[in-house]
Amino acid sequence: MDPADHRLSDAEVLRGLVAVLAAVCPNDDVARVDVLGALEQVKCAAAGAQARITAAFSDSQRAAQSRAGVSARDLGTGVGAQIGLARRESPFRGRQHLGLALALRELPHTMAALSAGQVSEWRATVVARETGCLSRADRGQVDAELAARPGGLAGLGDRGVEVESRRIAYRLDPYAFTRRTAQAEAERRVSIRPAPDTMALVTGLLPVTQGVAVHAALTRHAPPCARPVTPARGTRSWPTPSSNASPGRAPPRASRSRSTW
User: What are φ and ψ of residue 192, in 5° steps?
Assistant: First the structure.
């Protein structure tokens, strides 16, 4: 039998890596910090590999559908759902992963940094999101300028990547950036979804001025309606900083919370 027949597949090699990671156990804090950094690099590089494989899978599926006579309008149907299934996520999340993978093809420097484990999947997503309104040429220009910065993308935090991407995008095509803002305002909405313990989460995607006004109104009207919360029977009440106060001494007055925009 040919020895090549016993060669492990890529998936088998990666599953073996899972066992290696499960056994990682540094003995001191210096090693722990070093391993944490290495694991973060591995995690980011894995996201880069997933993006490359996702894009290749999409190409293969679309080609197979085309050969099967699927209309051009319907090419790619079901690909996002299959990606979500492979990643143990919903079809919606699968389509998001597919969109990012295809966008990164037009952002080669960002893709290279992700594949090298230098930036996270989220930072790559931010670059793709902030350049989505631009032409392909302008997206490539933003990508190149971000990579040319001292330290490249790795030298920027999440917020820095967002701000710098927007700054360059606006300089290259202010009209496209303005159209994007107008479209975002047209897509404002309020949604509700269930939460544990018969509660609900109400979320509003609003222009910032309307969002601030809603928050101010809720902040003004909510306190009179609020009632003290008492722990349910059988639940444990965890100590708070004020619980260490001396007997007979009033606890410190809580400061009014503020939201940042």
Answer: -140, 140
